[in-house]
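Repro:
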Amino acid sequence: MNKILPYTKDGRANSLMLFAVYFVINFLFLTKYGIRQSAIPFSILIIVFALANFSVFFLRKNQFLTKKLNAGLVYLLIGVLTVVYIALCHIMKDPYQLNIDRWQTLDFSLQYWTHGKYIYDTRNFMGNLSSYLPGQLLLALPFYLIGNVGYLQVAAFVLFSYIIVLEFKNNFIRFTAILMLGISLSYVYEAVCKSDFISSFIFAAAFILFWHRKFKDNYFQKPLLLGICLGVLCLTRSVAVIPLIIFLLKPFLAADVQSKIKTASAVLITVAVFMFTVFLPAKNLDYIIHHNPLTLQGQSNTLVMIVFLAGAVFLSFYVKKINDVFYFSAYIVFLVMLSFVLEKYLLLGVGFQHNLFSTTYLAACLPFSIIGYCFSIRKEIEGE
């Protein structure tokens, strides 16, 4: 293991593997949804997609671009893509026709939450129950109040761009990261369908980068604030706990007792308060047991999740740099979601082209794979 992990983290093959994860996620979206349209021949879509992605991958070999790209072009790219994503939030006039229900589920979940109604016993127009945890509802609330939950993806894109500019000083790397997310078919899909799935993991990735930069010498300088942030992030998506474990478990065990108590208390109180807000309207305890987000949101069976959580705990002790957090998170989150997708395929017989085949779940690792890829090419370019 001591020989495998350094190769995985520091070898040049790492950039290839991380980009391959990014490529596969978006290629699956192209093949699933591209074949359903008739405006452009599917073979042309494949060729354009491959050329665009390979161009992005080999850009780092172009010495002229790596040296000449400036901050102005980076900010121009951010501005253009932000406008594009705002437009994408309005492109779908009748979302019911696409048989995509996440936007409507988020919308009525926020409506119920803000009006004190129980969320988890109401089915959406496709007959599915809501599984939203209150942390995700909190993050989406401002956009619900202004009338378009799709703007959450725009905000997540801007946040991702901000944290990339903050972390990477090389403008070529900044440009690459922002472009990769901006042209990602899975993220475009999220914006058009007013979905919110990837945003959960963008918020987690942004928090990890920001907290590392702000409190690099000691992550527990503000234990109460840290605990509140962790509590909210853990209540977005269940799988979001994996990168947080990889990032903070080892430093937490090394922290002083007072910091441990304050952080753990803040996490528990935050989780308890927010869960109370969604469970309070329930009829009784038995009703909560049968209708709750903890059972509905699981992206895999319990045993599989325990295995991957154990893997996250194990890998956390091999983290030496912030780069490692993103490398490990990208791979393990991808494998978690892949196991869920394969489970759907093998046990439920849900085929790849079926609407219920959960291609979206694979995109959970997208922000981690992009940021990890940028760390790997920074090492190549700057010899870090």
